Amino acid sequence: MNWTLALPEIVLAVIGLAILIIGVLLKRDAVTTCTMLTIGGFVVAFMLVLNGGQGTGFNGQFIADGFSSYSKLLILAGASLAAILSIDFNHKQGIERFEFPVVMLLAVVGMMVMVSASNLMTLYLGLELQSLSLYVLAAFARDDLRSSEAGLKYFVLGGLASGLLLYGISLVYGFSGTMDFAKLASVLTNPLSASPGVIVGMVFVLVGLAFKVSAVPFHMWTPDVYEGAPTSVTVFFATAPKVAAMSLLMRVMCGPFGHLLAAWQSLIVIVSIASMVLGAFAAIGQSNIKRLMAYSSIANMGYALAGLAIGNADGVRGVLVYMTIYVFVAAGTFACIIAMRRQGRAVEQISDLAGLSTHDPLLAGLLSIFMFSMAGIPLLAGFFGKLYVFLAVVNAGLWTLAIVGVLSSVVGAYYYIRIIKVMYFDAPSPAFDARAPSLSFVAAVTGLFTLLFFVFPAPVVDAANVAAQAIFK
Amino acid sequence: MGFPLLSLITWLPMVGAAIILSIRGDEKTVASNARWTALWTTLIVLIVSLVIWVKFDRTSAGFQFVENVPWLPEYKVGYKMGVDGISVLFVLLSTVLTPICILASWESIQTKVREYMVAFLILETMMVGMFCAMDFIVFYMFFEAVLIPMYLIIGVWGGPRRVYAAVKFFLFTLTGSVLMLLALLAMWVQAGTTDIPTLMHTSFSAGMQTWLFLAFFASFAVKVPMWPVHTWLPDAHVEAPTAGSVILAGVLLKMGAYGFIRFSIPMLPLASAQFAPFIYTLSVVAVIYTSLVALAQEDMKKLIAYSSVAHMGVVTIGLFTFNEQGIQGGLFMMLSHGVVSAALFLIVGVVYDRIHSREIARYGGLADRMPGYAFAFMLFAMASVGLPGTAGFVGEFLVILGALQVNFWLAILGGAGMILGAAYTLYLYRRVIFGRLTREDLMHIMDLSPREWAVFVPLIVLTMWMGIYPSSFTGFWDASVAAMVKQHTAALLETTKLAGVMH
């Protein structure tokens, strides 16, 4: 039993427990200290993942390979950005509690277990640790009706999804006799002899995971939860859990069920097309920017799923590049959204951005970089995400997917440039309050990443390539 | 690899933009510093680009000043820059027009001057980079990125319906481009590289060529623009600030035609030949229909916008004749239209700055008060009509010669544009310049200022030079065009032979 493979998770969990004790003991300034310690914990885990060994541990329950390392690094980066953003927002909203970073940290431990799962049971444990923490976070502003509603909605629907997932796992186990990914793959080597029970189970597993990445038609919770949850939580929802769930989906579909490609490919294609189209069209009518970002994330997951639909290393590489860029762009966008405060109150209507370029050219400039990037306009990072996904899609000859994808990206571009239009072309509304340095920091870092990604794309793409190869070994 | 001259002129404007962004101080200082920095940056770029004019080897058909830096080595995508006879003059056209635009916006832009100048410098980087790109991915990135500054230029500094125009421009162009992106990816997958010279010598199967051609067509036809996807152009032109219209007409419209001559025709010879009648039809409709529409316009900018569609129709006829005269004529027409229509938009901008109206009926009898203006206007109007001795004539004449070799009626109908062009241009000129000066405010209108003369003199010189001594321009692309025509004929012959063997 090689327990050192799980060192990053173990260390992070212990740090979380320690922070919990520190938070209780400290009387003043507990929140800032705990958040800083959490970010410190993420950094430590980041280092451990970077230098960690590879292999399978815990009797085949847990795997550490290039793929899991890549996803974990991305999850930790996204969570760190979200943690930095939470400091200022929670303080100003009066929901400052030291439990916040701790719950976030536990969710991250769950995600790291998810991406390292090599057994359906580990998968479920990680997923539940993550989900339970996220339910708590969604309802974190417990005196706020919208937040409690978001938490409850997420809990009920998430519980249903977990139930479906578990049911699917039990079917797969019942019909194949194993929950181990490697053994499942060898049992299912010949897709023709696969029992229908396994296929039904696989579809249930797919549904449960599609819920977590908020793909159509399992997306219903997303807009309400995104809008209702405190923005500091929404930014977390939009980044790290998406990476974890998408990585898990790739691992499960390409690993144990890899030989059943013919059975699940059309499902993913349909889900992907539906997500891209619905995300693009439903966002047009939104006036709340958090809701708009919810639909935007649905569309973005649609593009990522398009890469997964191919089911080969090319596609997985495209998805990883896509998710990397998505995490940074989404974190930057939410940094700008959190900066939208007027007279001490958070505002979240798109019309509140009117004329932002007059009062705060820097913020307007950064937000337009993120919006153009989401729209996939070249030189900005978002274009490369789409480029690698569509390269793989075209290579596989899935033309319907490719054509629907690029056309819905044009529809998507409409609402992204509408935000730029509001900021630049409309008459100014009153200025926002001064920005906190932490927000400017996150927005500037992610903005520079988005702007300058085109200069050196090779390191990210190469790393994603290595990670993608690891799944198919 | 020698000195990276092309990268220098591509990225130098970005340096200027960074300097402008770092200026601190009150609004007035910032505005004045931004103007001067932008002007000097673009002038330096112009001077450096003249080195290319001097050192370019006109006898060679290949790419020159080539730079190659690995960028995504595993996927055989490089940051590869180079110019051949076809692209070199468009690089120069971009670098000539940008300082003129900066100068033309000197007084008319008073709000957000810093952002305006930054947008123009970014635009210059994208335009020059696009014409220099020797890698399809790099080309696409510059091609598409032009949307960002142009969207902002129309939307922020435009007229009353600017939002509608900007969004329409953005979405029309983007829709075409994403389809081209798919075609690009398909070629990438097929050929394993996106290097343009290699792609030119890669033969794609006939079925694939058809689809690729249609996808390219979706992008380039919108950009040219060809009838019936031209409707974004009048809106964008009318609402854009003067300098925005100048760049739009002068350079951005050329990007579509450049795409046809750089990608569609050499890379997809079979599909190009197959679709040529289709292109002719659309072009002839564009020439005749938009000329008639132009006759009915009440707005000066809209009239010139429609005339641009008609002129670009002649360009596409020329390019798709696949013979030397036609292609040379098309290229020449692109250049001359770039200079002349840009000048005409500047001409409109002059009176718009003074009276703030573009309505033709609002003017009349300007010749009395503004003789210098009347002279410049007449010169460019004549060039637009295609009077011999001006830039417009050479291109149209060559295109008609080329079209005659293809089909008599094509030449006649394409040539009809010259007659109709004379009608609407002279009609415009008569209504604005001649007649009696009746309006009160026109009694005190001032003639061209020295700054405005500085804008027009280079354009006047260019217009006359291109008309009187065209071979100093055609000399650049003689070799390239000859090589292209040869390759095209060979590719077609190859297929006919193959078909002969099969039967």
Describe the structure.
The complex is a heterodimer of chains A (473) and B (503). With 473 residues, chain A is an all-alpha fold. Chain A is 75% helix and 2% strand. Chain A contains 20 helices and four strands. By secondary structure, chain B is mainly alpha-helical. Chain B has one domain (5-502). Chain B contains 20 helices and two strands. In chain B, strands 1-2 form a two-stranded antiparallel sheet. The longest helix of chain B has 32 residues, at 324-355. The radius of gyration of chain B is 22 Å and the shape is globular. Chain B starts with a helix and ends with a helix. The interface between A and B is medium-sized, with 34 and 35 residues.
Summarize the structure.
The complex is a heterodimer of chains A (473) and B (503). Chain A is mainly alpha-helical. Chain A is 75% helix and 2% strand.
Query: Largest beta sheet of chain B: what is the strand line-up?
Result: 1-2
Order of helices and strands of chain A: HHEEHHHHHHHHHHHHEEHHHHHH
The fraction of residues in strands of chain B falls at under 5%
The helix-and-strand class of chain B reads mainly alpha
- List the chains of the largest interface with their residue counts: A-B, 34 and 35 residues
Oligomer: heterodimer
Task: Specify the number of helices of chain A.
Answer: 20
* Percent of residues in helices of chain A: over 70%
**What overall geometry of chain B do the principal axes of the alpha carbons give?**
globular
Low-confidence segments of chain A, given as residue ranges, are none
Residue share in helix of chain B: over 70%
Rg of Cα set of chain A? 21 Å
Number of helices of chain B: 20
Beginning-to-end CA distance, first to last residue of chain B: 49 Å
**Structural class estimated from helices and strands of chain A:** mainly alpha
Low-confidence parts of chain B: none
**How would you spell out the order of helices and strands of chain B?**
HHEEHHHHHHHHHHHHHHHHHH
Number of strands of chain A: 4
Average pLDDT metric of chain B: 87
